Amino acid sequence: MTDLQPKQDRSRATRQRLLETTIRCLATHGWEASTVGFIAAEAGISRGAVQHHYRTREALILGALEFMFDERAALLDALPEPTGTGLDRVHTVVAGLVETIGGELFRAALQVWTVAAADPELRAAVLPLERHFARGVHDRAVRLLRVDDADPEIRALIQATLDLARGLALADVLTDDSRRRARVVRAWSTQLADAFEGISPDSQDT
Amino acid sequence: MTDLQPKQDRSRATRQRLLETTIRCLATHGWEASTVGFIAAEAGISRGAVQHHYRTREALILGALEFMFDERAALLDALPEPTGTGLDRVHTVVAGLVETIGGELFRAALQVWTVAAADPELRAAVLPLERHFARGVHDRAVRLLRVDDADPEIRALIQATLDLARGLALADVLTDDSRRRARVVRAWSTQLADAFEGISPDSQDT
């Protein structure tokens, strides 16, 4: 038993390095270049060891996406409760959501979505992951914003905010869009704060 | 001269069919499948004739994107002036913008952006097209909404609307998202109309 534990730890560490490398390879080099051989070499792991964890390339890529989606959700859960009320709070939360949805994980997922768009089998495998992640982010947004999304208007505005975040993430794929993004996030947050105020004036002070 | 004109017409018609087929192939079958041979076969044109118009696969794909971007801009220009004021007008325009930015052209462009994300040479070729199209759509949005985007807040809100449209287009790639999209478009239009009203109360009645 004393020998088994370190071996399990090593296996877990290897697996995590493999999944992180898979995301980085997809985001940086794209779908076509991200073969099992290439990812294994980049991670410094033998092909055999990779196949011990994931039998196919598709299983490896989907495993990496799921792992990173879960990590992002955990990061959102670990965020300190935003201070302030009204616009300050809304702006902090929206900026955090945009940050969480964009970046390297988005660029990796984009490679998978784009191939899945023309591949029904991959699409069927990706959709449940995608839905699970989207639902998790939506629920965390509701909690952080302290709003009640049983109100259909608030629900639609939270969804709009997450759609905006994906649109901003897409705009950042071809160029560094961070300065423009900051202005758009600020303008959007102002409208969102006004809307929450108008729909349920007390929701943010409870 | 009498013989030349029909020949030019035929050549132009062939070219247009080729470009439309290229967009459809990219949107439906993806980047990897959309080789010159496959596109030529789908369009019912010989490989030689394709190469007479476009010497490389990349030139063909970029030519098709540019052509379709220009067609979309022309469609926006041809839209009847939206009637009504306030929310009605804003909703009509936002729904039209979301329609124009999404759909088959978006799915085709997504294939190109995604490959360009990991290919600096393709990225350099795509960016000017992309910027030209984005600027054209922005200017048309300003005109249709009858707002003054010299105001930085209005400018950021128009940009946010176009980012939202791209996010919605992305959400539609893996599933039919049209019902949810209609609710999101309505909710955002309400906020946008309120914002325009607040920033420059007379702008929409002139």
Tell me the number of strands of chain A: 0
Structural class of chain A: mainly alpha
For the record, the CATH architecture of chain A stands as Orthogonal Bundle
CATH topology of chain A: Tetracycline Repressor, domain 2
For the record, the CATH class of chain A is: Mainly Alpha
Number of helices of chain A: 9
Helix and strand succession of chain A?
A: HHHHHHHHH
N-C termini distance of chain A: 51 Å
Radius of gyration of chain A: 20 Å
Task: Name the largest protein-protein interface in this structure.
Answer: A-B, 49 and 49 residues
The largest sheet of chain A, given as strand count, sense and whether it forms a barrel, is:
none
Residue share in helix of chain A: over 70%
Give the uncertain stretches of chain A in residue-range form.
Answer: none
Beta-strand proportion of chain A: under 5%
Oligomer, anyone? homodimer
Average pLDDT reading of chain A: 91
Keywords (chains A, B): DNA-binding
GO molecular function, one term (chains A, B): DNA-binding transcription factor activity
Pfam families (chains A, B): TetR_N (PF00440)
Protein name (chains A, B): TetR family transcriptional regulator
Give a verbal description of the structure.
Two copies of one chain form a homodimer. Chain A is mainly alpha-helical and 206 residues long. The first copy, chain A, has a single domain (4-199), classed as Tetracycline Repressor, domain 2, CATH 1.10.357. Chain A contains nine helices and no strands. Chain A has helices at 4-33, 36-43, 47-53, 57-78, 86-101, 103-117, 120-145, 152-174, 178-199. In chain A, helix 1 packs across helix 2 (36-43), helix 5 packs antiparallel against helix 7 (120-145) and helix 6 packs antiparallel against helix 7. The radius of gyration of chain A is 20 Å and the shape is elongated. The model of chain A has no long low-confidence stretch (mean pLDDT 91). Chains A and B meet through helix 1, helix 6, helix 7, helix 8 and helix 9 of A and helix 1, helix 6, helix 7, helix 8 and helix 9 of B.
